[in-house]
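pinging the channel bc i need a second pair of eyes. not urgent but kinda urgent?? the chain im working w is below, pasted from the shared doc
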Amino acid sequence: MFLTSSNRKQICEKCSTYQPINTKTIICIDYGKEIEVKAWDVNTKRCKDCQLIYRKEYKKIWYKNRVDRCFLNKND
C-alpha cells in the first residue's frame, strides 16, 4: 500500500499499475450484430458492411442536393 499525492488515498500495488483495455464489444445500430472495436473508439456505431452502405447512401443524397443547388443558381 502507498499514498497518492492527491487526496492522500491508499492504493494497492495491483491497482497502481497501468492496465490497458484493448477491445470492447458494441452492437451495430442497423442490424444488431456484435462488433469488437478498440477501447478508445467512441465514434463507431455500425459494422463495416453497414458503414459502407450508409456512406454510399449519404454521398448519393449529398451529391444530389449539391447538383440541385448548382442548377437553381444557374437558372436565376
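so The longest strand covers residues 23-27. and The chain has a mean pLDDT of 82. — does that match what u expected or am i reading it wrong
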